[in-house]
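Exam review. A common question shows you a sequence with its structure tokens and asks you to describe the fold in words. Practice with the pair below. Do the first one on your own.
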Amino acid sequence: MKWYPPKPGFDTGIQVYNCIVRKKVPLVLRRKNLATLYTCGPTVYDATHIGHASTYVKLDILRRILQRHFNIRVFSVMNITDIDDKIIRKGQESEKSWKEVARENEEAFWRDLKSLRVLDPHIKMRVTENIDEIIKFIRKLEEKDMAYQASDKSVNFNLRKYENYGKLQKISTEAGDNVDFALWKSAKVGEPSWESPWGPGRPGWHIECSAMASKILSANIDLHAGGIDLKFPHHENEEAQSCAYHGCDQWINYWLHTGHLRQHGDTEKMSKSLKNTVSVEELLADYSANQFRMLCLLSNYRNPMIFSRDAMEMSGNVLNKFLTFLSQAENISGGDRMLPDDSFLQKISETIEEIDSHLRDDFNTAGVVKSLQDLMGFINKDEFSSSDLGFVHLVKEVVEENLRNFGFDLPGDKEDSDSGADSVLLEKILDMRNEFRRGRDFRAADVIRSGLKEIGVEIKDHGEKSSWRKMG
């Protein structure tokens, strides 16, 4: 299978692993200093576990590196799968509507990501709010003879008509219809459905991301991210149907896949179906968000990651060494020792160069951590003196800058943490107000709007959705 770097394009100087050619290749963007990113979000049928969370924390780190180290603005879009067999089943088991299950777990998902300091995507998209877009997408595939209606009234993608299947992962299509996949699933008795040209039903899993990503980001996207378990069949099917829809050879220029999270001694990935999960709430009862982020940093984003008490203690020890250094560097005093020649400045310069080199090498965050540790080790902290202050504070700045670039909450950053908590609370209030609006209780909605305005928060309504901003 062939892969094509964007032309014309802008070479970032970064090497990134490409699963199509199975090697690192130059990261070339279609627009200078701007990358488009689509991330596969969760199917919201249950609480977020740390296997999911590790994917979003790792991808958050990559996004921050691009933005803060390489000055590449990342335009981020994420979907929420809010209709699915598992959501319907969970509703039946809990005697709730499928909508309640989806909304409750979606709200919890965004709260969990905020608690882990994961940046919000610029655009969040729900499947149920894009049914018309998905139907249009399928209709066009049908018009191109790339889709057909099966005997059960579902609509399938016709792989016999598509020549480049197996781009991300080698797969045989000799079985014909047996490997065709559903674009539209015909309605079952008692399940939610939407009207379509093929009769009542709902979208297949793979089509939703293609339709929603194409709606916002069009026919060619720089980066598409998700866990390695999505590589096949989900991402393979996305690429196939999207190339067929747009009439192109390459829809996504770079696929970013994060490694599985496993518990110590467990050979399987962490997943709800295996009942070996740890929720984000359970994680944060024992460890800090910083500690979990450090665990994610200490391996390449593509590699599997082990979660265990020993692993978390190790990441905590690494984190504490950084925090101890920053604290000591802030409080050194006394002495009149002078440093020999310019060896200190030379070491700082070399470390800065090493960090840049590591990050250009497929975002080697573990290498950056090691370089920063070596830089701190170059200083004998027991012999700090007043004459060393300028040098030590320069090292402190280098350490702090890189940790903040990775998304750590450092001493003195309390204002940012409070702001994050405020955002979570405001989003909850906004959700509650929108429930009133949907129920046509506009008086209650206006009372909430007026109350928020009194504390400096302005609400704007956009159809059925709303946004907020702090005034002044």
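Now try the second one, then compare your answer with the model answer below.
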Amino acid sequence: MSSRQSIDDLYKQQDFYIGLSLALSSSFFIGASFIIKKVGLIRLSRIGSVRASAGGFGYLKDWIWWAGLICMGIGEAANFAAYAFAPASLVTPLGALSVIVTAVLASKFLKERLNLLGKLGCFLCIIGSTIIVIHSPKEAEIEDLNLLLDKLQDPAFITYVGIILSLSLFIGCCCGPRYGHKNVIVYILLCSAIGSLTVMSCKALGLALRDTLSGKSNDFGMWLPYFLIVVTAVFVGIQVNYLNKALDIFNTSIVTPIYYVIFTTLVITASAILFKEWGRMKAEDILGDLCGFFVVIIAVILLNAFREMDISLNDVRGIMRPKRELLSHKNQYDEFLIETENNSLSQKQYGSGDYRDI
């Protein structure tokens, strides 16, 4: 019995590391896809095409945008496969690593700044992701599609789906046309809300594919996988459309972190409601997982919110100088201000004297 249990544990660990590897690779492709698509959208705007935010679809004829879409497709495919092997509470937060890829490539190809705080954010993002990996659940949430079908009928999850669909419909029909061009949250909230349902359908569809390919069961003899394929295709289309609008209107450095925070929060919420994975975790693992997620959020904010600040390592070295040097520099600066003010006053008086003489 113990030998059988050890073999099962070995397979669980193997699945965990396969899912982890796929999640890491997907972060690279997805992060790069944001930059490639943004480059395509910028090029289209320069040649006078109707922008995506104005309802234009000229990007469908641009090969650079298609290259970005293919890159995102590879990343999403790896991400999709990762959900079949590892828990959603592990795979989704690791998407923060795509923020690092986006930030580095944006500084290279879009000439967006990556200052000292941005580099610190990249470092903290890696630390937070490592904490999440250490404390995330190592076992699969569910092993059988029939059991998943029962969980999909849970009143709590049905309520969540109803709220998400109602919110998305309200934003798409009412808030989007009015406030989508003014507030970055609008389109990203819709994209993230639909995305949380997409992840759940991808998780279920990945489970069906894995069991079918391994010969464990013929899940495609049921109606559920085909329904999940349709749902996934529709939801992905909605996400791509509204994400393009957000990218076209706002800076990539703003869209990426906000999308990550909202999307990941909603996915973790949906996963907790559907799979109830938090109930099988130890208290310290739950706390560690949350701490890792908060570290990543802080990292994402540092990486993007202070991007325009001109701060470097030399500024930090300046702070570490002896007090005498700092006071000396301050006194010199104060003397310079006083001298400038006196010169300005003397020029005004001289001008007034001339006027009286005339």
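Model answer, second protein: Residues 93 and 185 are 19 Å apart (CA to CA). The mean pLDDT is 76. Full marks require stating both points clearly.
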